[in-house]
Amino acid sequence: MGAQVTRVREVQKARVVGVGVVTGAVAGGILHDPHEYSHLPRWVLAGYAAEASRADAPITAPLKAGRPLLIHAETPKTTELIEATPALTRTHPPPPGWGTNAHLQLIVHNFLKKVGSSSIQLRRQLLYHPDGGISAVDWVTAIDAPSKSTSPPLPTKLYAVCREACGYNCSVAPVQTPSEFLASLAESLRARAIPEAVASLSVATSDRATADVRLPPPQSDEQLQEEQKEDDRPVVLLLHTITGRTDDAYGLGTLIRALYQRGWRVAIHARRGCGDLPLSTPNFNLLGATADTAAAVAAVQAEVGPAVPVFAVGLSAGSAELVRYLGEAADATPIQGAVAISPGYRLPAAWGRCHPLYDRIITNKVKSHFLEPNAQVLAQDPTQKQLFDVGMAAELVSEFVEKTCEYTGVDSYEKFTSVSDPCQFAETISVPMLAINALDDPVCVAENIEPELFRANPNLILATTAHGSHLAFYEGPRAVPWVDEATVQFFDAVLSKRLHNSARES
Fold first, then answer.
1. What CA–CA distances, in Å, run from 310 to 256, 264, 319, 343?
2. What does the alpha-carbon distance between residue 20 and residue 26 come to, in Å, rounded to a whole number?
3. Stretch (H or E) spanning 314
4. Distance (Å, rounded) from C-alpha 362 to C-alpha 350?
């Protein structure tokens, strides 16, 4: 409990420092309210100040207009990609009233990402690794019309979770009353034509989704070869969050639909212990093992053929897996372009800055996801049993990772952080990569972002927005996730540039 109190005091102290930074801007006539943006880092204020100066407007204008703040090296290639990705330069309409609160947006995202997930059909390709571990590539084979009977309910008790979260973080917008929140959310769902979700709002029941992603029987080698001959669409490999389950399509339903409808093939790399895969060895990593990632990329390229472009998206913890893989592979990767959504940046600092409430939730989630169902594999001898027990006793993510790091194959926490910190690999990324962060993200917070990484590597682009919470990024009354649009547009831009250059060279 003492650790939690200390964490809250640290957050409050950071707020005070932030107020001091913004007060200086007030004195200079840039800001009018010293508290409204006190939680923003200095580089964000400087970026918006520069943009406002160019437009001869107050610094609050670009923030309130909903335009992303872009950080990148000034190169012709970067400028061309940004111009070809309208989602990065257009004005984004504000989210619904409830969406200006980061906690409500995150809660609603955890509900909406499950709607219609049962209509996504997957074909599983198992990957057997040298140490006996197993991961998988799940290929999206079809997307049916969403079934109304499998939409999960939104428990009204989650409103209390949001109230607790706001007690720790006073910088977010005031929380609506339960009736106001549900009425506002219902209006957004009606606008998105999800009546079955609206009907479920009054049901207070389990928050576990009942939807199930169907895994059809494996195809024969002849069927697969015939399918490959007829399908030369580019492929996107998705790297999921800290845990992943097939019963909600890894929480990636809207992104999968956006890519699939645009004409892209989609695959998901299910890490060890995820995607309903039991652990076969006492080895797992919350951030993924890059050797496994490389095997997944190789399996995808082998299935579609060397001429088919392959792209990748990492989400939250999956973005750490993505950045580490791309940086380690450097010029040797077949990946043509990448997007990192809600990345957490440098370790171990990122662990300690996560909002205290979500820190507890994530810690309990990884214990129930990795440890409890795999107890027989992870506690085979007294040494492993001790490791298992201290992991089960952990109260914070940082404590869990520190106490269980030997499950990743290293012998110390220092070694784990040295090989797992994605920021140290950013400079060697050789393909275009777009990173998208929300400045109100309570999990991967704005203080984590290191803008100098994007200025130093001409292949990297950072886009930040005032609202978006963690992975949600809703805009407009229909609460549409604009990151899906940005991802598709960015990949289209990279692919178009690649094809144009190939044609010119030939």
1. 15, 10, 16, 21
2. 10
3. strand 310-315
4. 14
Q: What are phi and psi of 128, to 5 degrees?
A: -100, 120
Alpha carbon distance 503, 506 (integer Å): 5
pTM of the model: 0.80
Contact 246, 213 (CB under 8 A): yes
DSSP secondary structure of 319-380 = HHHHHHHHHHHGGG--EEEEEEES---STTHHHHHS-HHHHHHHHHHHIIIIIGGGHHHH-S
Contacts of 162 (CB under 8 A, 6+ apart): 101, 103, 104, 107, 175
3-state secondary structure of 473: coil
Residue 13 tokens read as 């102290």
Whether residue 348 has a cis bond before it, omega within 30° of 0: yes
Containing H/E element for 265? strand 265-270
DSSP 475-492: ETTTTEEHHHHHHHHHHH
**Are the C-beta atoms of 37 and 58 separated by less than 8 Å?**
no
Task: Give the residue from 301, 299, 397, 291 showing the smallest Cα distance to 351.
Answer: 397
| Chain centroid offset of residue 47 CA | 24
CA dist 505 → 86, 306, 498 (Å): 27, 19, 11
- CA–CA separation, 300 and 335 (whole Å): 10
Per-residue confidence of the chain (506 residues) as pLDDT tens digits? 444 434 433 433 333 333 333 333 333 333 334 445 556 777 776 766 666 555 555 544 445 556 899 999 999 999 999 999 999 999 888 888 888 889 989 988 888 887 778 789 999 999 999 999 999 999 999 998 655 444 444 444 444 555 555 544 434 444 455 556 556 666 665 665 555 444 444 433 222 222 233 344 444 555 545 555 457 899 999 999 999 998 889 999 999 999 999 999 999 999 999 999 999 999 999 999 999 999 999 999 999 999 999 999 999 999 999 999 999 999 999 999 999 999 999 999 999 999 999 999 999 999 999 999 999 999 999 999 999 999 999 999 999 999 999 999 998 999 999 899 999 999 999 999 999 999 999 999 999 999 999 999 999 999 999 889 999 999 988 889 999 999 999 999 999 987 555 444 44
Rounded (10°) angle between helices 76-83 and 482-505: 130
Residue whose pair of structure tokens reads 């390709």 in the numeric block = 125
- Helix, strand, or coil (residue 124): strand
Contact 116, 173 (CB under 8 A): no
- Distance (Å, rounded) from C-alpha 310 to C-alpha 265? 9
